[in-house]
Amino acid sequence: MQEQEIVSIIKKQREYFNSGVTRAYQHRVDCLNKLKEAFKRYEQELNAALMQDLGKSEFEAFLAETGFCQHEISETIKRLKVWMKPKRTWTSLLCQPGSSRIYHSPLGVNLIIAPYNYPVNLSFSPLIAAIAAGNTVVLKTSEMTPACSSVIQKMLEEHFDPHYIAYIPGEIAETTVLLQKKFDHIFFTGSPRVGSIVMAKEEKNLTPVTLELGGKS
Question: Could you tell me if 138 and 110 are in contact, meaning their C-beta atoms sit under 8 angstroms apart?
């Protein structure tokens, strides 16, 4: 994918986020249900892709990847309304008389960079969280799992507009371009070596980064 296309996707996602559409509870739930339906439709294709790319059996695929994500979607839908409610908290004496609440607000345009070893789980688990939080998402999977990447791309492009959730195909060149752009949160899973590169590139923008490196968050 060309750099101009990536820039255009990010720009349109920021415009869509700024419209406020993603903040609504119903929008979040509808999109989570849409993702749940996509899993039901593509579960067998995902299982076959996981076998092709990584040699994972159907049982292992369900336990650690597809089934895990479907359960996470269901739990998120069930708890989302409570998570979104403002929470009362202690008020300083300096602010009396008064009351204080914590409001949970989405950050904006999120970037997810998934690894090769759990391509479904670590693509969709952070995606589920980003949808639930009211963000837009750009997702980049590993070039080392071509079969899984192909199915994931079909799932997302069939069920979501790219101005909301966009899949970026490609290899290291596309990842390099993505890390040069401004995002509001980045979720990266991979090696400590690459994780340090991600952190170094984003510190100039003060971008919040979630790193899962070598199996540890």
Answer: yes
Enumerate residues 6+ apart whose C-beta is below 8 A from 47: 58, 61, 62, 66
Question: Is residue 118 within 8 Å of 46, Cβ to Cβ?
Answer: no
pLDDT at 202: 87
Interval 69-118: pLDDT, tens: 999 999 999 999 999 999 999 999 999 999 999 999 999 999 999 999 99
Residue 80 has phi, psi (to 5 degrees) of -60, -45
Residue 83 to residues 87, 104, 105: CA-CA distances in angstroms?
A: 9, 8, 11
The predicted structure's pLDDT at residue 216 = 61
pTM score > 0.70 for this model?
Answer: yes
Q: Residue 100 phi/psi, 5° resolution?
A: -130, 145
CA pair distance 200, 203, nearest whole angstrom: 6
Amino acid at the residue 190: G
Q: Which two tokens stand for residue 146?
A: 């071509």
Judge contact between 143 and 1, C-beta under 8 A: no
The candidate with the shortest Cα–Cα distance to 167, out of 144, 150, 182, is 150
